[in-house]
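FAQ: What does the model actually see?

It sees only this:
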Amino acid sequence: MPLQVSNYSWQQTSTAVFISVPLRGVSVRDADVFCTENYLKVNCPPFLFEVFLYAPIDDESSKAKIGNNTVVFTLHKKEAAMWETLSLSVDKEMMQKIREKSILQAQERAKEAMEAKAVARREDQKYTLNVMMKIEEEERKKIEDMKENERIKATKELEAWKECQRKAEELKIIQREEKLYHQEKQMEEKRKKLKHKCLSGNSASKNFATKGRNSGNIFFEKLKEDNIPAPRSVGSIKISFTPRVFPTALRESQVAEEEEWLHKQAEARRAMNTDIPELYDLKEEEKNPEWLKDKGKLFATENYLAAINAYNLAIRLNNRIPLLYLNRAACHLKLKNLHKAIEDSSKALEILTPPVADNANARMKAHIRRGTAFCQLELYVEGLQDYEAALKIDPSNKIVQNDAEKIRNIIQGTELESK
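And it is asked to produce this:
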């Protein structure tokens, strides 16, 4: 049975009430104070102090000071007036009603305060997310500007090197032409000398015809040896190749596959003929999107930027290959370019239509990579939707099931905290 504290003292002004409650022989720091606009209670076992106030007070601005075995209350009145007494004279039934009403009021205020705190926390999280997204966007733009400046610088250096090579090649051609000209001139002089000797030999053979036939033959053989033909002139030979034909027997012919292959090759050739500065210094096989897709093996060596550059060029050559977007999304995930990973995964899903069994594996990868990017952005609801879409494609995948369950637990934990 608690001991009611009756030896308290109180004073008042027109706007405030001051109450001093002594609690001797106990630790005042353990006192439990409960105050509403019409009710005040101090519970410090074995003592109990309880007052049903004469008029309502402002409990939010009122204060309690604990120390020196005493609890001192400063209660601010809602209306400025002098009270006749501190406590009302009420029966037990009215006391119980006032207690219950005070407890309900306190619970409602605590609930409102908790909801306000949860709203403020959500707003803080939203603001923090926006700030982080803005910082990430600024960093991405800064990196893109640096890459663009480096590309422009490298392009200028390459153009300067090409110009030097072209001038050097022109100089070599001029020197070669001058050399050929001098050689032709020397050969012309030799031919003139040989012609002059031939004429001299003919006249000599007429004068010495009586000396015999053999002497003339010997001179003629010597003249044939000295008569050297002129070098061949420089020229170019054009070669035309026959078009490719599939040497397949009619009974084994796959006309549809062959037509599709020819169509893809034609598209690749048209793409290679486009005015893309990055293609100027590439070999023919390096201009093939399939070859560039294989360059994505740089991903295995953790050279993600080089792999992204290869995929970028491949997509510029042919933007209808979904695996290019899927692989580039994986690289962006490694580099924490989460928004770009979401864009590439969405583009791959857009190309992978209609959904059939042949593209099921690629669609599942696209959903998982986009869901992973959403979860890393703490957008767990969107991420869970992608993981559930992946499970619809392959319901027996244990890894995806476990990851989806983890996301559900995170979402439920967030909802519990907000409540």
